[in-house]
Amino acid sequence: QVQLVESGGGLVKPGGSLRLSCAASGFTFSDYYMSWIRQAPGKGLEWVSYISSSGSTIYYADSVKGRFTISRDNAKNSLYLQMNSLRAEDTAVYYCARAQAPPGGGGDCYADYWGQGTLVTVSS
Amino acid sequence: SYVLTQPPSVSVAPGKTARITCGGNNIGSKSVHWYQQKPGQAPVLVIYYDSDRPSGIPERFSGSNSGNTATLTISRVEAGDEADYYCQVWDSSSDHQVFGGGTKLTVL
Fold first, then answer.
1. Tens digits of per-residue pLDDT, B72-84?
2. By CB neighbour count within 10 A (0-12 exposed, 13-18 middle, 19+ buried), where does A10 fall?
3. Chain B CB within 8 Å of residue A114 CB
4. What Rg, from alpha-carbon coordinates, does chain B have?
C-alpha cells in the first residue's frame, strides 16, 4: 500500500532553516510527480511546490519562491523541502503528497495520496 | 492570481443531499479536484477531473463543473461525512495550484 512519511519538522526561529523529508513506499516513486502542501493552524490548504517525476520541472507558490527548494532522490524514494529564511507565517503542518499528472505531463495534477504531515513552527 | 470561492459552511440533515460549490472565473474550462478533511487527519481525495471517483469513495459522492461553478454533491448524507471540503484547480496562467478556502459540512 502507498505510504508517505514526513519528517524533519520542529521549532525554528525566524530567519532559520529546516529541511523536511518524505519517505515513500508502496509504489514506483520515480514514476510520479510529488507535491508539498501546507496548512496553517486552523486554516485551509495551501499548495507550496511540486516536482516532476524526473525532477526536471518544478513549480513554487509565490509565498515561498526564492526561499524554499524542492528536490527528490529517486534512488532513495525520497522527497525533500529545504526551507530557508523562515517566517512566522510559514508555521503550518506540511504534507507530502503523491501527485497524479495528466497524460503527457504538465501542472494539472491532483494529490491522490497524502502523508500525515509534519508540523513546522517558526517562533522566537 | 486565480481565486476559488467556497461557502464557509453548509449544513444538511442526515439522509438529505449536500451541495458544496466552488466558484471561479470560467472554472468550467479547468479540471476540478475535491478533497475531504476530517479533524486531525490528512486530506483524502474524493473527486478528480470534475466527476471521477477514486476507488473506495462511495457513489454518494459526485461532481460537476460548468460555467463559473463546480459542485460537489453528497447524496444520502451520513454523520461520517461531516468534514471540511476543499476544491483545487491548476491555474495555467500562473503555473500555480490553487485551493479554495474550504467548506465545513455540518450534519445536523
1. 999 999 999 999 9
2. exposed
3. yes
4. 13
Question: How do residues B11-46 score in pLDDT, each as one tens digit?
Answer: 999 999 999 999 999 999 999 999 999 999 999 999
The pLDDT value given to residue B101:
98
Please give the Cα distance from A55 to A70 (Å, whole number): 9
Residue B100 with chain A: CB contacts under 8 Å: 44
A109 touches chain B (CB under 8 A): yes
Query: Given CB atoms, is B92 within the 8 Å cutoff of chain A?
Result: yes
Which parts of chain B are beta strand (E)?
9-12, 18-23, 33-37, 44-47, 61-66, 69-74, 83-91, 96-99, 103-107
Q: Compare CB distances from A110 to B88, B95, B102 and report the shortest one's residue.
A: B88
Question: From B32, which residue of chain A is nearest by alpha-carbon distance?
Answer: A110
Question: Which set of grid coordinates corresponds to residue A79?
Answer: 522527497
What is the per-residue pLDDT for A101?
87
